[in-house]
UniProtKB/TrEMBL annotation, chains A, B:
InterPro entries: Homeodomain-like_sf, HTH_TetR, Tet_transcr_reg_TetR-rel_C_sf, TetR_C
Superkingdom of the organism of origin: Bacteria
Matching Pfam families: TetR_C_13 (PF16925), TetR_N (PF00440)
DNA-binding positions: 40-59
A GO term, aspect molecular function: DNA binding
Domain HTH tetR-type: 17-77
This protein's name: TetR/AcrR family transcriptional regulator
Keyword Nucleotide-binding appears in the UniProt entry: no
Native species: Actinospica acidithermotolerans
Lineage: Bacteria, Bacillati, Actinomycetota, Actinomycetes, Catenulisporales
Swiss-Prot/TrEMBL keywords: DNA-binding, Transcription, Transcription regulation
Length: 209, 209
DNA sequence: CTAAGATTGGATCGTCAAATCCACTTCTGG
DNA sequence: CCAGAAGTGGATTTGACGATCCAATCTTAG
């Protein structure tokens, strides 16, 4: 017997699709605020305004739903980040990105952390499928950052030998670590320190002029 | 009626203390591997070799136990880190610390993450007492790092105007973010990139010679 | 040595969550 | 328009977990 979780077919009617979407959106919200384990099917049922059977009509089990939430949040974050990162054409643009990240964290006083980071911390060790999906999400996010840095190399802002791969990973780790600390300390101090330190190092890699 | 969780008195006999310690140690291990929510009292009962009533004899409820585990892990981490950080007298010593952190992560393939980081991600938003304790733990950890950097300022390795506070926070965030990503990606790449980038920036702050 | 208090074992209770079932209604392709 | 598939509602089953109770045993101060 396989331990693999079965996949459900996509809804074939538009009504079905709407219901499925409503469930995923509500689940994403609840899981962001209470964690995956902290989100019960009764609570989700009420939040999404569906009956319990709908949830299991569209998702094989809670793991399957969780994976849908990961996909949803990945998409949300990339959609939010990619435009900002695509036009990283100057050190100023990099600082603007920094400000957006920090302002977002400040808005809810550090609470919540990163939607992907929280899920990753909770699920990676015990849900291999979730872990794989989250690893891919982080890789895609890092790639988007790297793309931005590559732009800065391309237009001569950064030296050609700049290790954009490494810097992208360092920036992503700074975001994740900074958000995690913000969650505990209710301050964005660590997030700012981490981002500013990495960015300062990037400044030092700028082409002399 | 108060929502505050009552504190239990410390055990008065040495046997009682041993039992309490055994419970905390087993709980710390289980919570590290399965999270706080993922650690059930039956599982803890078996792992610690006690009966369920013991747990509630020594701890008011699961929250109280969780706080004890936070204290336990904080103590464990500080005991492990402080000696290393106390003798940060050179850039080489800083790199040695980096190696220890990375080797530790590599040892279990990134699994588990940081005991404090994982608990923080899980508890900060919903358990104010745990959040406060964890915030204090992180502050103490950052202070230990800063102490080491101050040593390097004191002996002239780093410039006097070095912002050790900020760098300490940046290093801690790099550790937390790097470990979180290592958990998802099963690689220490991001951890290395983050630490090396911050450390490279510290190198640049070294006094010219 | 001996009571008072500390500690222990394990049955038990109430609650709640995950998942299933089945009867009913709404869609939609031909 | 009308079968048959898709979608819906809600009761229900099953099992686990946090927490409590109480009787029995050990520890220690006097």
């Amino acid at each position: 017997m396989s331990t693999q979780t079965a996949r459900k077919d996509a809804p074939s009617t538009s009504k079905g699709r709407a219901t499925r979407d409503r469930i995923v959106a509500a689940a994403a919200d609840l899981m962001y605020r209470h964690g995956a384990a902290g989100t019960s099917t009764p609570a989700l049922r009420d939040a999404a305004g569906v009956s319990s059977s709908q949830i299991y009509h569209y998702f094989a089990d809670k793991d399957d739903l969780t994976r849908a939430v990961i996909a949803f949040q990945t998409q949300a974050i990339l959609a939010n980040q990619t435009p900002l990162l695509a036009k990283l054409d100057s050190l100023n643009a990099l600082n603007a990105w920094r400000d957006v990240v920090i302002d977002a964290a400040r808005e809810h006083g550090g609470t919540g952390g990163c939607p992907l980071g929280s899920l990753s911390s909770e699920l990676s060790d015990h849900n291999p499928q979730a872990r794989t999906a989250l690893a891919a999400s982080f890789t895609a996010w890092a790639a988007a950052i790297r793309e931005g840095l590559l732009g800065m190399v391309g237009n001569g802002t950064l030296r050609p030998e700049t290790d954009t791969d490494r810097l992208a990973l360092a920036l992503l780790a700074a975001v994740q670590g900074g958000l995690l600390l913000a969650q505990a300390q209710h301050t964005t101090g660590a997030l700012e320190a981490a981002l500013d330190t990495v960015i300062a190092h990037i400044h030092d890699q700028a082409t002399p002029r």
